[in-house]
Amino acid sequence: MHYYSTNNRGHHATLKEAVTRGQAPDKGLYMPERIPVLADTFYSNLKGLPFEEVAFKVAWALFRDDMELRDLKAIIDDSLNFPIPLVEVEEDIYSLELFHGPTLAFKDVGARFMARLLGHFLKNEDKEVTVLVATSGDTGSAVAHGFLNVPGIRVVILYPSGKVSPLQEKQLTTLGQNITALEVDGTFDDCQALVKLAFSDEQLNKRVNLTSANSINIARLIPQSFYYHYAWSQLPTGKDDKVVVCVPSGNFGNISAGLIAKRMGLPIHRFVAATNANDVVPQYLQTGAYLPRPSIATCSNAMDVGNPSNFARMMDLYGNSHDALANDLVGYAISDTDTKAAIKEIQQRTGYLTDPHGAVGYLALKHYLQLDKATGIFLETAHPAKFIEVVEEATSNKVEVPEALASLQHKPKLAHKIAADLEALKAFL
Ligand SMILES: *Cc1c(COP(=O)(O)O)cnc(C)c1O
What we know:
This protein is an alpha/beta fold. It is built from 19 helices and 14 strands.
């Protein structure tokens, strides 16, 4: 199957080209040219299957022309090998826990799958490939862990010195092996600018085979559609005929993957986009005017995005029709005050501990369910311990830190300090 650019439906790329390029040459985002529609029996047969099998069935429908069955199976078994349980929080409200991967956030799903897919496409090329990423925290660690020990690939992460949390820094800098962390004397914007400069430097690109692993890569998006299928397949009979899924959203990649799953035939009645104060999409859904603006810092900081990069994908999926999109998608914005109060209230009433992103999702879902009765699922996108300061302040209780995070405290930091300067980066590469 081919992939086209959201800027030009006439531009076509193979899956390999789309994955190795990341973004189309015209700066558009890649979309599958044909989203397969699966039969009702396909869905009834998903019930009770483990995640890897659900993922494989959906993936095979999308990728069957592009690779051998056993290769796809190996990629899935190797990358999607952690639990994604659907947990009942209260009557008719479920949490899909996406935080059981190595970096404790949902980005592990996309990053791990993409790493192995890229490894698959590059395995017969004798040149080593360097994946270059700039990070403000979470993306870099998911990508780094995703690519750890993938043969033929070296990962170089640029992060701003002193501007990521101590825990995030440990996640970025303690891996070693084929992962190198560069601690840049500058801001996140400097890191991003350096990566852009490196990609456009002819001399460097002759010498080093550079590729990007940023969040708009189609190989990070598509695996996220698998767990929507799996969430639905875990619902008890009788609870699965009118289902609303609420997604805490920043760049809107996660929810775009959900909308693709719905287009494939997954019986989801409607999606709810939950945002913090960075609410350009809920505003758009209400008014029809898309007005991107600089982001505002909030306590659910992985969603502090003022101009979501996947907006173009959602519009493309709905033929650029506001009404068509607004028919499937409702948006709510949640304040920090309400988010923190909800973390405490949900825990006291139900015993379930949410992180700030999950709490935003829970509240937006509640708003929706006041107007329309349905089974609700919200995505719990990170482990509460990743946002320990906010959660402990909200609940006045200590948060138990999982072993995977706690053990990092004792590992040595391995980072090279560099100036925010292209020559310094080139010298390193
Ligand atoms: C990245 C992230 C989000 C936002 O996901 P998008 O796909 O960018 O909308 C939400 N929660 C957490 C914890 C994240 O890391």
